[in-house]
Amino acid sequence: MNGKKVNMRLQREAKMAKKDIEAQIKKGGLKENFICLPDPSDPYKWYYVVYGIEEPKEYKGGYYLGVISCPDTYPAKAPRIDILTDNGRFRVKEKSEGICLSVSHHHPESWNPAWKVNQIVIGLISFWITNEDTYGA
Length: 137
What we know:
- This protein has helices spanning 8-26, 117-128; strands at residues 34-39, 42-51, 63-69, 80-83.
- Strand 1 (34-39) and strand 2 form a beta hairpin.
- Helices cover 23% and strands 20% of the residues.
- By secondary structure, it is of the alpha+beta class.
- The chain is built from 2 helices and 4 strands, in the order H-E-E-E-E-H.
């Protein structure tokens, strides 16, 4: 671990996410178009892979890696969302400030502590496949 106090909420979310993925695999395969799990050595850092996007066509067949970095005060404060794979929708920058979305640290006024890390990825995907503009797009 990285010396931070263990966040009970993130521990519960990690267990639920892992259990959900295992259940989907047992039932014949993943039903979601993403996987999101915490770094085993840092429960505040979650990696996600988005795949299986059919529309818009420019994303079809792609695999996109990203990271969600939760602050020590999560879920009271919103996490930072980064994309690590260029995809045409979001740009990868050497010194990124993260993606600006209502579910990210850029908009603390719209953050809802009830949101879970996996739900953040769902929100990112829904934004990803629309034509709305945001910082970093």
